[in-house]
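Retry 2 of 3 after timeout on previous attempt. Resubmitting structure tokens to design endpoint.
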């Protein structure tokens, strides 16, 4: 592995080793988080505006799968702000029998709406 051969402090070698073991998506998340931390410590006046990850909707997708996909796509959104409506839609599917595609359409609309609010808050 490259990290131990480099003349870096132990914590940096450890970070490189961890980074190397991550999936591509997790690497992107780690970089986004590091950028967030860096902007917080530098006192950057300009807010960081994250773009959603493009994860295509599979032809056959469960509501739970859609929630996971959308949460990963819109990683920058506060999950607590989406929880009540997301739970309500999941209940409508499981208890009231709403079709998965209809619920997923509404979930996508919900996440896009929250992302648009996130964007306007950052500008």
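Retry 2 succeeded. Sequence:
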């Amino acid at each position: 592995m490259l990290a131990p051969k480099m003349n870096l402090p132990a914590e940096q070698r450890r970070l490189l080793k961890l980074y190397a073991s991550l999936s591509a998506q997790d690497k992107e998340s780690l970089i986004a988080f590091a950028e967030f931390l860096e902007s917080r410590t530098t006192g950057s006046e300009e807010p960081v505006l994250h773009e959603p990850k493009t994860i295509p909707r599979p032809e056959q997708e469960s509501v739970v799968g859609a929630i996971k996909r959308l949460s990963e796509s819109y990683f920058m959104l506060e999950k607590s702000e989406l929880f009540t409506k997301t739970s309500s839609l999941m209940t409508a599917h499981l208890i009231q029998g709403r079709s998965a595609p209809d619920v997923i359409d509404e979930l996508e609309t919900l996440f896009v709406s929250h992302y648009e609010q996130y964007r306007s808050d950052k500008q």
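Attempt log closed. The helical segments are 2-5, 10-20, 24-42, 63-73, 79-94, 100-122.
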